Automatic annotation (TrEMBL):
Keywords, alphabetical: Fatty acid biosynthesis, Fatty acid metabolism, Lipid biosynthesis, Lipid metabolism, NAD, Oxidoreductase
Pathway(s) the chain acts in: Lipid metabolism; fatty acid biosynthesis
Database matches in SUPFAM superfamilies: NAD(P)-binding Rossmann-fold domains
Top-rank lineage group of the source organism: Bacteria
Organism in which the protein naturally occurs: Chelatococcus sambhunathii
EC number(s) reported in the record: 1.3.1.9
Family affiliation: Belongs to the short-chain dehydrogenases/reductases (SDR) family. FabI subfamily.
PANTHER family given in the database record: ENOYL-[ACYL-CARRIER-PROTEIN] REDUCTASE, ENOYL-[ACYL-CARRIER-PROTEIN] REDUCTASE [NADH], CHLOROPLASTIC
Presence of keyword Ribonucleoprotein: no
Catalyzed chemical reaction(s): a 2,3-saturated acyl-[ACP] + NAD(+) = a (2E)-enoyl-[ACP] + NADH + H(+)
Protein name per its UniProtKB record: Enoyl-[acyl-carrier-protein] reductase [NADH]
Enzyme class: oxidoreductase
Length: 251
């Protein structure tokens, strides 16, 4: 990946999937820039970025289009163009990631879909303009988009819409050589995952029932991401690639 420059969105700490992806892309020679959401995460992201000799572009809250514009303006100023982008962003009110989906509020439905789904389209609109030599967009999804999963609720609906977005964006941006793919990661203990009811049980269930009889790591997701972000996967777009120890074939 040497000579490639990529923007990483969604690092909260060193357990984040986006961090696993950043480490792998860096190991394969890519040059990186990070965004962070709010000052609390700035303090976490800055030292991580420094570890990889990467730039920190600035604050980006995907609910605020002005902050997205500012980030892409800064990328353009520093790099002039962009080769890849990692979107590892999701949110739902924790109180609605337990119990029944039918009880989802309109407010949390809108917010969850905006942050977890529309934001990919919002960043694709800006990235398209900078991916003048083609590029690769990558997002993160979960099996709860395909099947009912306990407690995943509105996030399952948001991920289903996200996966459909991957296909529509792939078709729209394909003519410019911009590829759009997702990794459907198995459960991993991160900050976001800790908001999901009974998450420890889900981890154990996957460990006992997946073909590989274990869960996956952020490093494993990172290696697959490096393939999808690099020219090794130049014939691949619109794909939802499972990195879940094979759980999707049995679940
Ligand atoms: O088991 C898991 N951990 C899986 C996660 C399995 C399959 C998929 N995923 C997905 C998540 O749904 C998400 O899309 O992977 C992506 C990354 O999630 P993660 O690495 O599990 O979680 P985390 O380290 O918490 O990063 C998600 C980050 C946020 O962190 P917090 O925990 O502070 O909400 O998404 C970012 C934020 O940094 N984020 C936002 N960024 C910009 N604007 C916003 C926002 N409004 N909201 C959340």
């Amino acid at each position: 990946m040497s000579g490639k420059r990529g923007l990483i969105m969604g690092v909260a700490n060193n357990r984040s999937i986006a961090w696993g992806i950043a480490k792998a892309a860096h190991a394969h020679g890519a040059e990186l820039a990070f965004t962070y959401q709010g000052d609390a995460l700035k303090k976490r992201v800055e030292p991580l970025a420094a570890e990889l000799g990467a730039e920190v572009i600035g604050h980006c809250d995907v609910t605020d289009g002005a902050t997205i514009d500012a980030v892409f303006a800064e990328v353009e100023k520093r790099w002039g163009k962009l080769d890849f982008l990692v979107h590892a962003i999701a949110f739902s009110d924790k109180d609605e990631l337990t119990g029944r989906y039918v009880d989802t509020s309109q407010e949390n439905f809108s917010k969850s879909l905006l942050i977890s789904c529309y934001s990919l389209t919002a960043v694709a609109q800006r990235a398209e303009k900078l991916m003048t030599d083609g590029g690769s967009l990558l997002t993160l999804t979960y099996y709860g988009a395909e099947k009912w999963m306990p407690h995943y609720n509105v996030m399952g609906v948001a991920k289903a819409a996200l996966e459909a977005s991957v296909r529509y964006l792939a078709a729209d941006l394909g003519p410019q050589g911009i590829r759009v793919n997702a990794i459907s990661a198995g459960p991993i203990k991160t900050l976001a995952a800790s908001g999901i009811g009974d998450f420890r049980y889900i981890l154990k269930w996957n460990e006992y029932n997946s073909p590989l009889r274990r869960t996956v790591t952020i490093e494993e997701v990172g290696e697959t991401a490096a393939y999808l972000l690099s020219d090794m996967s130049r014939g691949v777009t619109g794909e939802i690639h499972h990195v879940d120890a094979g759980y999707h074939v049995v679940g």
